[in-house]
Amino acid sequence: MREGDVLVATRLDRLARATRDLLELAEILNRAGVGLRSLGEPWADTTSPSGKMVLTVFAGIAEFERSLIAERTTAGRLAAKSKGIRFGRPPKLSAEQIALGHRLSSEGTSVREVARMLNCHHATLYRAIGTYVTPADSD
After folding, report:
1. For 111-138, how does the pLDDT look when each residue is reduced to its tens digit (9 = 90+)?
2. CA-CA distance, 106 to 125, in Å (whole number)?
3. pTM over 0.70
4. Residue 5 — very low, low, confident or very high, per pLDDT cuts 50/70/90?
5. According to the model, what pLDDT value does residue 137 have?
6. What 3 state SS string does 12-30 have?
């Protein structure tokens, strides 16, 4: 960019995540004689002194809002977990299948064969039953 150019961003949060980063970028652009404008936040226009001041204030508010969202999300997840809600993908194998897999593999059936019987990948069964992969089972 050259002096007199204006960098246009769709939204400031797409340009920088933290206030410090946004203000540092705005300062670098200012030293280069380049303005900064946001399409999503019309108040964010560093080509004027009032725009620079408003940008600083609103960037701080935006960062504060992001931290509040993160805090609420964390609290919500902890509350859900305390109610027994499980996050992530559901387990592929039931407790009964894991017990059967463990029993069959300890009786000599290869983990890969047991995995075929249970219709799962052998690595899934290894993780579930905690069996160490031996060279004989790895083929």
Report:
1. 999 999 999 999 999 988 885 444 454 4
2. 13
3. no
4. very high
5. 47
6. HHHHCCCHHHHHHHHHHHH
Q: Which two tokens stand for residue 132?
A: 């160490």
In this prediction, residue 4 carries a pLDDT of 92
- Does residue 2 sit in helix, strand or coil? coil
Q: What is residue 128's three-state secondary structure?
A: helix
Domains identified in the chain and CATH numbers: 6-82 (3.40.50.1390), 89-139 (1.10.10)
Report the chain's terminal Cα–Cα distance, integer Å.
58
CA of 13: how far to CAs of 3, 92, 99, 110, 129, in Å?
Answer: 24, 38, 49, 53, 45
